[in-house]
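request received
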Amino acid sequence: MSTKLTVKSAAGDYPVSVGFNIVDEALKTYFDNSSAPACFLFVDENVWKHHQPKLKQIFDEIGLPYRSFIIPEGEKSKSIKQWQVAVNFLLKNGVRRNTPLVAVGGGITGDLSGFAASSALRGIPLIHVPTTVLAMVDSSIGGKTGINHETGKNLIGAFYQPEMVVADTQFLQTLPRKEWINGLSEILKYGAISNSDIFEMSELFFEEDLRQVDQQELIKLIELCMGVKVDIVQKDEFEGGVRAFLNFGHTFAHALEKAADFDQISHGEAVFLGMLAAIDLSNRVGFSIDDRSIRTFRPLYNFGVSSDSLNRDRLIEYMKSDKKMVNEHIRFILLKGWQHPVLRTVKDETQIADSWLAALKEL
Ligand SMILES: NC(=O)c1ccc[n+]([C@@H]2O[C@H](COP(=O)([O-])OP(=O)(O)OC[C@H]3O[C@@H](n4cnc5c(N)ncnc54)[C@H](O)[C@@H]3O)[C@@H](O)[C@H]2O)c1
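response:
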C-alpha cells in the first residue's frame, strides 16, 4: 500500500509518498528518469547501522557512482562545523549542479543535509527519505532546512524544497520507542489544529510493541498528517501567516527545552507538555477547551525532568528571547476551539505563569 500527495511550491511541485517497502522503487524510478552523473547519500549513523545492506543494494542497483556520508546522531550535528564538513565532502568529491543528495534519516539529517544541498553550488537536487515518525509527518515536508547557532536553534538556514519525499515505514521497524512517542506529539498537534480524526487514529500508539502496529492504519495516519502539513505550507510557503499554526505548543516547548539544557527533555516530550500549557492558556484568555483529546495520551510519556529544576520566571524569560515577540509581549498559538487555532499576544504574564504551573504539575 502506498499513497502519493503533491506539494505545490514556488520552486516547483514535488511528490510526497508514504508506504511500506517503497523506497527502492521510488529511488530507482527517480534515477531512471534523471540525467544525474552520480549521487550523494547522506545517512544518519543509526539508520546506517541498521539499514546499510539494503541502502547499499539500492544504490548498487541504481548503478551510478555514489559516495556516502554518515551523520552522527544528535542535535550537535546541526552545527556550523558539521555543515562545513558536509559541504567540504560534497565539493571535494566532485559535486555538480545536477548531482542529487539523498538524505536518509530523521529531522536532524534532513535539516543539515537540506541546508548543505541548498548551499553547495547554490543548490543541488535534494531527496528526503525520512526515517522517523517526526520526519515523515513534519520536517521532510515544506522546505525548511537549517542548523543551530550558539544563540539559538534553527537560526541559520534556508527555505529549500526537495525534488521528492519518500516515507518508507519499513525504516520504523528499528526506531526506538521513545522516538515513536516524540513523533506522536507532532501528530497530536495536527489533530488539535486541523483534524479530530487524528486523535482516534493515534490510539495505535498504545500498542506495546510499536513494530507490530497495523501498517495500513499507520500509513493512513501518516498520510493524513502529511496532508495537513502539505495544505498549510502550500497556503503559506514562507511563514507569513497560517504556517505559524504549526507552532501550536511550541512556544512553551522551546522554553522548556532550553531550561532543560536540550538534553533532559526531548522535543516531542516538550511539545506534548507545551500543548497542555497552550490549552490551559486558551482557557485563561476566555476560550473553552477540554484537554481530554490530548491528555488521553499522557501515559505514553516518561518525562526525565523534574519540576523542581524548572523556574517559571526563567521559563518566561526564555519565551521572551524566542523569535515570536511583539512589543515585549509573547505571542502564542492558542485554540479558540478544537481545530480552530488563533495567533494571540498575551500581555498578562500571571496567566502565562499559571499555565506553566498547570503544565509542570505533569512532571
Ligand atoms: N525542517 C522542519 O520543518 C522541522 C520540523 C520539525 C522538526 N525539525 C527538526 O527535526 C529535528 C528532530 O528530528 P527527529 O525527531 O527526527 O530526530 P533525529 O533526527 O535526531 O532522530 C531521532 C533518533 O532516532 C535515530 N533514528 C532515526 N531513524 C531511525 C531508524 N529508522 N531506526 C533507528 N534509529 C533511527 C537517530 O539516530 C536519532 O538518534 C530537530 O532538530 C528539529 O529542529 C525540523
